[in-house]
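Quick one, tokens below. Sequence please?
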């Protein structure tokens, strides 16, 4: 059995290996390194085994964004969203003792334990928008950050945050965060709300923006009317009642 393919060059693999980023056996195979060879190199301390089928450079500390870039190549639609996206864009209410990343994707998945053990995370695959919405609408990398790590813009992050209300996200904190968002772009929000399929999210956007007196409340009010008489009522685990019946 051949340990490597004919085109394998370990020096070439090392030269192109980004610091702080793990690589999977599938990615190493693209450079000609078989899984057998990767395992042998790990036993010889040329590579370090992270998890099944995942390796890193010896002594290298895994970088959060580099790891997110790797996950994004394997999980369709993966991006930083909701409360974390707002936080990374400078909108926050309470400082958490330990950051828990809010990640969103297009389909249900389990984040690998090697990632969550290093970077505590919560993954969401809730169907928030319809299939007609433009791909990656409201997703952009942060300035001076890796271009392959997409982060929700404030308008999309707000809707993702509101989707989490009643599922671990308190209404009180959501209200405070909405109060910190007076300058959302009406045009961007309007396009996102046009494709929003969750009644709760639209109702909350309308109710909280109206209470805060934000300029973009008119956009939310228009989409609230579009939903007709559909309502949403829930009692959270903490006993908080959320009643979003249309007035």
């Amino acid at each position: 059995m051949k340990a490597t393919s004919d085109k394998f060059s370990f020096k070439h693999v090392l030269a192109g290996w980004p610091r702080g980023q793990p690589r999977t056996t599938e990615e190493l195979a693209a450079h000609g390194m078989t899984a057998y060879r990767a395992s042998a190199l790990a036993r010889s301390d040329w590579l370090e085994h992270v998890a099944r089928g995942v390796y890193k450079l010896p002594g290298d500390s895994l970088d959060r964004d580099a790891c997110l870039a790797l996950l994004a190549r394997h999980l369709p639609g993966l991006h930083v969203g909701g409360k974390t996206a707002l936080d990374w864009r400078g909108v926050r209410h309470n400082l958490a003792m330990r950051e828990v990343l809010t990640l969103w994707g297009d389909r249900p998945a389990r984040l690998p334990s090697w990632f969550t053990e290093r970077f505590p995370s919560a993954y969401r695959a809730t169907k928030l928008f319809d299939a007609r919405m433009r791909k990656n609408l409201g997703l952009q990398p942060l300035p001076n950050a890796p271009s392959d790590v997409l982060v929700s813009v404030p308008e999309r992050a707000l809707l993702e945050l509101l989707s989490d209300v009643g599922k671990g996200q308190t209404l009180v904190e959501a209200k405070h965060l909405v109060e910190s968002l007076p300058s959302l772009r009406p045009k961007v929000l309007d396009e996102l709300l046009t494709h929003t399929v969750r009644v709760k999210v639209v109702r909350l956007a309308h109710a909280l923006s109206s209470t805060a007196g934000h300029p973009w409340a008119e956009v939310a009010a228009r989409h609230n009317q579009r939903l007709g008489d559909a309502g949403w009522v829930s009692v959270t685990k903490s006993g908080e009642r959320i009643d979003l019946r249309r007035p």
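The chain has a mean pLDDT of 88. Residues 10-56 form one domain.
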